[in-house]
Amino acid sequence: MNAEFVNPFITGLLNVLETMAQTTLKPGKPKRKQSEIAKGDVSGLIGMVGPQVKGSLSITFDEELALTIMERMVGERPDTIDGEVGDMVGEVVNMICGNAKRDLSERGFEFGMATPIVVSGKQHTISHQVDGPKLIMPFHSEEGMAHLEICFDK
Amino acid sequence: MNAEFVNPFITGLLNVLETMAQTTLKPGKPKRKQSEIAKGDVSGLIGMVGPQVKGSLSITFDEELALTIMERMVGERPDTIDGEVGDMVGEVVNMICGNAKRDLSERGFEFGMATPIVVSGKQHTISHQVDGPKLIMPFHSEEGMAHLEICFDK
């Protein structure tokens, strides 16, 4: 998994949150260890299936950050992670993956996207079950952390 | 989403747990409401992408049931949901989806499977983000509940 492939996802996350929620995330150091796991309170997950590879993508937010993004997008802050926050997270992961898909398709790398799944629950962990490369990228903000994870089966 | 399409997944779950872990699940009443959500302690999720449709599948287990399945498969009961239990859940969802894929392919319905993702966390909820049909199927056992959820975008 090279930078050319991963960058559209990272750029997508930064752009989407900047544009939709005036929220600037600061990228941390990417981690490639199989043992690393993303932890947070609400996650958007999406599967990818292409002729060459298959894989999965997840974005996990701390509750405070998710609520702040929601507040900046709709003008009102929910008390807790509810269905609307979940829908927002599903929409964000869908947009990021969709943008990256278009970008990579132009470079001859094709994949289809499954429908997004949203997971809510205090400090849940996400483990992508792949033998291939795995990248976890932490993002910092004043309101909490986000973790982007991208994995492929080869 | 008709029974012909859903049944291979349901049969798959029952067969896999019966064969691998001598565990008999009792299917409950399927629910089709968009508002229903699956809740549990460990889930296996997988995305599906086909030429006609895309969708997602999840299987969510209560902790007690997941630990019992693990105990019956490997002969030792973990104290809690650890990485090995997660791998087992990922493998179960992969097997069920793989069997259903073969079965449905023989009937002319093709889809590709993304790589599985496992979520761990006390009483997390799963929300499949689709506009199309959604089926949640509860399964009962003495050791706890499992929920199978299958969704497609049309």
TrEMBL record, chains A, B:
Lineage summary = Bacteria, Pseudomonadati, Pseudomonadota, Gammaproteobacteria, Alteromonadales
Q: Which InterPro entries match?
A: CheC-like_sf, CheX-like, CheX-like_dom
Pfam families in UniProt: CheX (PF13690)
GO BP terms: chemotaxis
The superkingdom listed in its UniProt entry is Bacteria
Q: Could you list this entry's UniProt keywords, alphabetically sorted.
A: Chemotaxis
| Organism, scientific name | Salinimonas iocasae
> Mind telling me what this protein is named?
Chemotaxis protein CheX
Question: What residue stretches are annotated with the Chemotaxis phosphatase CheX-like domain?
Answer: 42-140
